[in-house]
Amino acid sequence: MSGYEKLICMFLLINVQHCSFFPLSDNDINITGPFYPFGTGDTVNGRIDDGSSSVIYLQQPFIFFGQTYNQIYVNNNGHLTFDGAWYSYSPYQFPAYGGKDLIAPFWTDIDNRWNGVISYQQYTSGSVLTQATQDINQYFPDLSFSASWVFVATWDRVAYYYNSGIETSFQVVLISNGHLSFVVINYGAIAPTQRYVQAGYDTIDSSHHFSITGSLQNDITSLPHSSNVNVPGRWAFRTDHGSRGCQFNGNVASLTNCMPYFLFAARL
What we know:
GO biological process, one term: cell-matrix adhesion
Number of domains: 1
Strand content: 25-35%
Signal peptide: 1-21
Keywords: Signal
Largest sheet: 7 strands, antiparallel
Domain NIDO: 105-242
Helix content: under 10%
Protein name: NIDO domain-containing protein
Order of helices and strands: HEEEEEEEEHEEEEEEEEHE
Distance between the termini: 8 Å
């Protein structure tokens, strides 16, 4: 089946009884996947192996499973931390039962010295808030949510250590209205690697944690095909107090919100 035929079926999901699951081929994956806007106006991290941003003071507090944070760090090796810059390039498995709140869209040994851009930006008005509001109300339809703050961090076509020229793209989006908090993780083209990758989130003492399918496996390139919200390459979680979302105290809280969704293609 051609990529064109697959696109037809994605947009014409009328007679789904004539459709069957298919994994998208690499040619079907957009480099930027289902990404939020990035680039223009972003602050860019330095081209430093195992580097990090300086402290980023949040324009609105972000609640992460009961902890309220006013600052964050974008670490080059594919994770966000709240209590300080973190340079770890060797992922551990979630749950870790450790002492760190951690959001890890793609934790591995990233090296942006030769190619790729790591950048971030906050929003308190405009079209990005409109997009975030629409997305959260689609994924969590009983909340009547209206976003007042969005933080977008993007790893655009970065390389693994020590492989100049290899390109991997992913993004993490924090969304809040001051009371409810959400994390959206987006995957574009993911280059093969023999290094381990951990994707998901973990909290202090692992009271809340989630590991995205494919983590710590040899082949992580399936991430652009996977989702828990019926959007290939996107995972979304509510993260304020754990009352909704994919995993709460190690147990599945809502099968509807947790199980991966897949695209369908017509049998032609």
